[in-house]
Amino acid sequence: MEISNTYIESFIQPRSALLLEMEEYAQEQHVPIMQLPAIDVLNQLLRVQKPSSILEIGTAIGYSAIRMASVLTNCTIVTIERDLERVRLAKEFIARSEVSNRITVVEGDALEVDVESIQSTFDAVFIDAAKGQYMRFFEKYSPLVPSGGIIYIDNMYMHGLSDLDLKDVPRRKRTMIRNLKTFADWIMAHPEYDSTFFPVGDGLLICLKR
């Protein structure tokens, strides 16, 4: 039996006026932010893990960074975004939040930024950027996560496209989905990680470093 959206939404945590404003902006301007059930699950997992530092790949307008910092009162977050307009908006929204002193926005391509010059290790990494580059993001930043750290990855389901044969995927998205499928197979067989897929939101992958 499929669970109704109304029932799922009854478990979603209430949000501040700022977060509701950000959600409305994201919907109107077609800015991708994490789906509400998924961000609630992510935050609950973070409460259990209790990381003191998080690296986020893909800031967008700063929504998930604010949400994560709000439930982890002793955690600092470094978040990377390459889109200049989104960097500007993220900084504005974050400045209006109550957690601005614990979030650092880094402007640049996550595949080129030297994050180690800012911080050498992170208890957790959250990847939510270019889906076709997940393998490269993982390979670049997983060495910064110590044993026992966790890498969280959103959008593994890609609105159902990941569940299709490539021939049924729109041509313009085939390379991205092929890369995403390759990454999924690779990480599930990785000897250094215990990984679990959560069918929530658009698909959340949790990778615990052994």
UniProtKB/TrEMBL annotation:
Enzyme class name: transferase
Tagged with keyword Transmembrane helix: no
One Gene Ontology molecular-function label: S-adenosylmethionine-dependent methyltransferase activity
BP-aspect Gene Ontology terms: tRNA methylation
Catalytic activity: 5-hydroxyuridine(34) in tRNA + S-adenosyl-L-methionine = 5-methoxyuridine(34) in tRNA + S-adenosyl-L-homocysteine + H(+)
Residues binding S-adenosyl-L-methionine: M34, S64, E81, D109, A110, D128
Keywords assigned by UniProt, alphabetized: Magnesium, Metal-binding, Methyltransferase, S-adenosyl-L-methionine, Transferase, tRNA processing
Residues engaged in binding Mg(2+): D128, D154, N155
PANTHER family, alphabetized: CAFFEOYL-COA O-METHYLTRANSFERASE 3-RELATED, O-METHYLTRANSFERASE-RELATED
Assembly with partners or alone: Homodimer.
Function as written in the Swiss-Prot or TrEMBL entry: Catalyzes the methylation of 5-hydroxyuridine (ho5U) to form 5-methoxyuridine (mo5U) at position 34 in tRNAs.
Family: Belongs to the class I-like SAM-binding methyltransferase superfamily. Cation-dependent O-methyltransferase family.
Designated name of the protein: tRNA 5-hydroxyuridine methyltransferase
Native source species: Ureibacillus sinduriensis BLB-1 = JCM 15800
Gene designation per UniProt: trmR
